[in-house]
Sequence to fold (190 residues):
Amino acid sequence: MIDLSRSALILVDIQNDFLPGGALAVPGGDSILEAVNALARRPFRAVIATQDWHPPHHCSFSSQGGPWPIHCVAGSYGADFPEALRSEPVTHIIRKGILQERDSYSGFLDNDRATSTGLDGLLRGLSIDHVVVCGLALDYCVTATALDAVGCDYKTDVVPEACRGIATDSKAILEKLEKQGVLLKNLNAF
Fold:
C-alpha cells in the first residue's frame, strides 16, 4: 500500500493556455480535470501545481525564435489555472520558465539542466519520497517532470488517465517512462 503521508501529487501545467481554446491547447486537455480533481482529494502530504509563468518576450515564443506560440505569460488569463481545477487541495505552486532566456519543461529543472526550480528542495523539506505526476502535456512537461523525479531518487508514478499529450498516441512515451523507472498507475491505486 502507498503511504500518501510521504507522497506528493504534482499537477503539471494545468493552465488555461493548455486547454481547448488556449494559445497552446493540448487536444482533449480538459478531459483530465475530473481525474485530476479526484486524485487531489486523496490525502497526499502535498499537492503541488507547476505553472508556466513566462515573461512577455520569452525565448520559447515563436516571435523570439522559439518553437511555441505566445502562451502562459505571467499574470495573464492563459497562465491561470482553470476554474474547473479544484484549487483548495493545492498546497504549493512552483512557477517555471520565469527567466526570459531559458525555458523549463520539468517541474524540477530548467532546460539548461542546471538551474533548479526549487521543487526538489520543497519535497525534501516535507520528507516526501514518492511523487505522483499528472497533467499537461504528457509528451513534454509531464515526462520531463517524471524523469527528473526518478533522477532525484523519488519513487515516481504517472497516472495516464490524468494526463494528455500533444501527440494523440501516447504508447511510445508511456513505454519510455516505464523503461526509465516510472510506474504507470490507474486512479484507483491511490
In short: Strands lie at 7-12, 46-52, 92-96, 130-136, 155-164, 183-184. The two ends are 9 Å apart (CA to CA).
